[in-house]
Amino acid sequence: MNFSPTHAIHGFKTAFAAVLAYTITSFFHLELGHWAVISTVIVMQIYVADSVALCLYRFSGTILGALIGTLVILIIPETPLFMGIALFFTIGFCSFLTCYKPRYRMAAITAVILIMTGVHAENIVLFGLSRVFEISIGILSAFLVSVLIFPRRGVDVLMEKLESQSKACSEKCRILVDAFTAGQKNVEETLVDELVKDVWGNHELLQKVNQHEALIYHKNVNTDLSDKVSIMSRSAEHLRNMVRTLNVLDGNGYDIILSKELKDLAEESGKTLELLMKNQPLPAVIPLEDRVKALDTGLLNLREKGLIRRFDSKRLVQVFSFYSSLLYFAEDILAKAKKIQANTRKAESQPS
Questions:
Q1: What class has domain 154-347?
Q2: 227-257 burial, b if ≥16 CB within 10 A, otherwise e?
Q3: Which of 107, 205, 118 is nearest to 156 (CA)?
Q4: What is the DSSP string of 32-55?
Q5: What 3-state DSSP class applies to 1?
Q6: 262-320 tens-digit pLDDT
Q7: 152 closest CA partner among 250, 47, 229
Q8: pTM confidence score
Q9: Residue 209, SS3?
Q10: Which of 65, 174, 265, 315 is buried most deeply by CB count within 10 Å?
């Protein structure tokens, strides 16, 4: 079993938040302070974005659940039969509402707590407010610990993922171009599957960052993240198209005259993509632009000389499909690089 520092820190933070909640409830001599500790464990997550989301869900769900639970206790007779009926309809109703908002599951938890423990309370309204107060202490403890102690921000995780994915894209692209120039050899169908799956997970993480972390870290959320996530998704899809193109035909293919240009383009595309994801400065003249022009020029010369006539129809379609996917891969990266350059120059030209 490999040791995970991230999970070790999460364990420490969860335990610390739980003890903090316990200490606060003990100081106020709250009757059912254990609900604060339980709430802390429920909402504490590894990433700040997830913790903030669950804190919001838990708090809003607690308010709604307290209202429902209090209303139910005021209405139903104190008999086992009616208690069972009340629990059935309350839990069913809140669970049904989760199709609209996940927070309603938290409402069901609070409602059950109130119905099960508050049915014999002298003052049900005061009892309900006390439970809300206890649970809120747990939520606040988890929120403070998550944000202030070794915060694991989703934006940092996303940047790490993008950097790692850019390296994987660069490597996979070189493998595919090598297979293409070596007689259009077949490759493993699953060559880029894990990469594509990982890349599409960026969108969910980005949404969490924009919805929750942006509420706390207004100045530090990277405004280019959306563009980076988009270009990474497009790059992975282009690679998957290359895999499909290579595997559409079996047998030996043709020698590719523009092998050097293709390999140079793949190499420079990967380098530029990695620079983009690492936030490293781009050169004044982006070499990738010359590589794109060189391949376009070479392909045009081949067509003018009639050298592509040697391909049969199916192989011709395969060759041009691969060319197109690689060019789209490079041009998307180049367009992003130029956009960043333009934004940088604009920012530098503005008076401070």
A1: mainly alpha
A2: bbbebbbbbbbbbbbbbebbbeeeeebeebb
A3: 205
A4: TTHHHHHHHHHH--SSHHHHHHHH
A5: coil
A6: 999 999 999 999 999 988 887 877 899 999 999 888 888 877 777 666 667 788 888 88
A7: 47
A8: 0.76
A9: helix
A10: 65
